[in-house]
Amino acid sequence: MNADLSHTPVMLSEMLAALAPREGGIYLDGTFGGGGYTQAILQAAPCTVWAIDRDPLAVARGAALAAQYPGRLHVIEGSFSHMVQLLAQHGVQALDGVVLDLGLSSYQIDDPQRGFSFRTEGPLDMRMGSSGPTAADLVANLPEAELADTLYQFGEERLSRRIARAIVAARAEAPIDTTQRLADIIRGVVPRTGKGIDPATRSFQALRIRVNDELGEIARALQHAASLLAPGGRLVVVSFHSLEDRLVKNFFNEAAGATPAPSRHDPRGQAPREVPRFRLVTRKAGRPSDDETNQNPRSRSARLRALEAVL
User: Fold this and answer.
1) pTM reported for the whole predicted model
2) What is the pLDDT of residues 69-81, one digit of tens each?
3) At what angle do helices 201-212 and 179-187 cross, to 10 degrees?
4) How far apart are CA 90 and CA 110, in angstroms?
5) Residue 53 and residue 75 in contact, taking contact as beta carbons nearer than 8 Å
6) What local confidence, expressed as pLDDT, does residue 274 receive?
């Protein structure tokens, strides 16, 4: 049984080129999802892959793929922000490469019961794992100002105040516990644009990010991944919106010493700069090819960046 092709891994060839798997290497796929990246790495070189996913359904799917690669694939349930502790429990303390695909798996988007999509009717959940508050809990309980801030900060939604006001008015009449009810409320106050983007897109993104603390998880995962890389090891990250990509870009630039030097008038500018432990493999974010975006429209917002440990 192969990794299920109903989930199409994004920028697969570009990821492999950046990661450069080698014989005997030990790699981590921190976002196992449908297993597409993991399977490609295992096929690219006789190596070992550890895979992490916070979604128990993804881990259950991974058992079949692990059986196909006995002794070479190990799938662990947990958050990638805890990768150091999770791997240490299995005696793994250094890696030759880490790949993180920060996008939602197609399994999650396409399953109405997960509540991620505004295109299908389902419970307003949005949790990647199986515990913690749901999106419905946030919509029901956040004060209007905090709800507006959430939509603006995590969804970059310019009409956040208008949407928050409409949600608060609607929840006073009846609970907002389905994806379609929330989407309809948003569509009722946000005009459609000529770009074909659904008015609910940014708000759903914002709630999902907040429910799963995605930006905090990413920031912690980047620190952990960098600390695990052996010399020559690479960290490859594929992000899908500007908030994620900005986090990755800033972390990579700082790790590689690619940030601007302090002003000569700044006392910090007098001290010698430390030799960076990392170098940028990608100076600019890689983007999917036109062929890929035509075949898989979900890939159009993908950005790939890679970092290598040199010390």
Assistant:
1) 0.89
2) 999 999 999 999 9
3) 130
4) 33
5) yes
6) 79
Tokens found for residue 109:
């988007």
pLDDT in tens, 109-120: 888 899 999 999
| Bridge partners, 234 (sequence order) | 97, 308
DSSP output for 260-294: PPPPTTSGGGGSPPPPPSEEES-SS-B---HHHHH
Measure Cα distances from 274 to 9, 31, 174, 263 in Å: 37, 32, 59, 16
AA letter at 4: D
Give CA–CA dist 116/124, Å, rounded: 8
Segment 261-283, tens digit of pLDDT: 665 666 656 556 678 999 999 99
Select from 310, 309, 308, 295 the least CA-distant residue to 12.
295
CA distance 45 to 311: 24
Cα 270 → chain centroid: 38
Q: Which residues lie below 8 Å from residue 195, measured CB to CB, with a gap of 6+?
A: none
Answer CATH for 12-107+214-309 from 3.40.50.150, 3.40.50.12780, 3.30.565.10, 3.30.43.10: 3.40.50.150
pLDDT along the chain (311 residues), means of 10: 56 98 98 95 98 92 96 97 98 98 80 91 92 96 98 97 98 97 97 86 96 96 98 97 96 93 61 84 96 93 97 86
Which residues are registered as beta bridge partners of 73? 49
